[in-house]
Amino acid sequence: MTFKAMGIASLAMLSSLTFAAPTTYTFTTGTGSAMAYSEVANLLGTTATVSGQFTYDPQASQFGNALELGFGESAVIYLGTPPALAFSGLSGSVGGHSFSDPYGTVAIGNDRPESSGVQDVIHITADPTPKVGSNTTPSNYPRQLSTFEIGDYRLDNVRFFWLQGADGADDFLTSTDLPAQLPAHAGVLALDFVRISDPGNLANTPYYNNSVFFGNLLVQPMSVPEPHQVWLSLLGMSLMALKIRRDRSA
């Protein structure tokens, strides 16, 4: 086989390969609103929005008990193990305050039978949510959120979710597998707070009374080369170097 033919064959082989890789997303939201409690939203400011970034990996493995992690039985929970973590590298800010978390979980619910009418859902959480029927978060799962305090409140969790029927989203999941990409339609970001003077959160039922919900959550993949594009570029440079070397020795 000639040098040219070898190069063409190698390029054809590499271009036909596909690679699944973690994707880093940036995110932004609209302004927040409190569902049942307004003091935290007022402390953050009526014009506060949330922005930041995280990494999502659709190759992560399943993890945990859906009920124990605060979801219905029809949801599948994903965590993964390094380097394939479903949700990792969270960093963000709101109203001049910053937060971060090394990794969390992704819950996928497809065609759920819940009476609320919400059938498809993607729910990402930085730290564990309360067990079903409980007001406190489970202690047997690690809490790693680097948080902030404002007034008598401390940020306790960060959650992202996309729901069928919200913002015109139709049936957007076909299974409980992790989707290759996160939805392009708008979702919701929730910041969950607890009182510093009431660390057990006993005075507020339910747990989400101290949550501030930010609508118009939009996530955007960061522009980075795909792995197969990197391989093709490296191959192209190698072929050029070989050709130059061959021409010089001719």
Work out the helix count: 3
Query: How far from one another are the termini?
Result: 19 Å
Number of strands: 13
Please describe the biggest sheet, giving its number of strands, its sense, and whether it closes into a barrel: 8 strands, antiparallel, barrel
Find the structural class using helix and strand composition. alpha+beta
Name the overall outline. globular
Q: H/E series, N to C?
A: HEEHEEEEEEEEEEEH
| Rg for CA atoms | 23 Å
Strand order of the largest sheet: 1-3-7-8-9-11-12-13
Please estimate the helix content: 10-25%
Structural domain count: 2
Strand content: 25-35%
- Let me know the average pLDDT: 79
Q: Which blocks of ≥5 consecutive residues have pLDDT under 50?
A: 3-19
Q: Multimeric state of these chains? A: single chain
Can you walk me through this structure?
The chain is of the alpha+beta class and 250 residues long. It folds into two domains: 1-19 and 226-250; 23-221, no CATH class. The chain is 17% helix and 33% strand. It is built from three helices and 13 strands, in the order αββαβββββββββββα. A hairpin with a 2-residue loop joins strand 7 and strand 8 (97-109). Helix 1 runs antiparallel to helix 3.
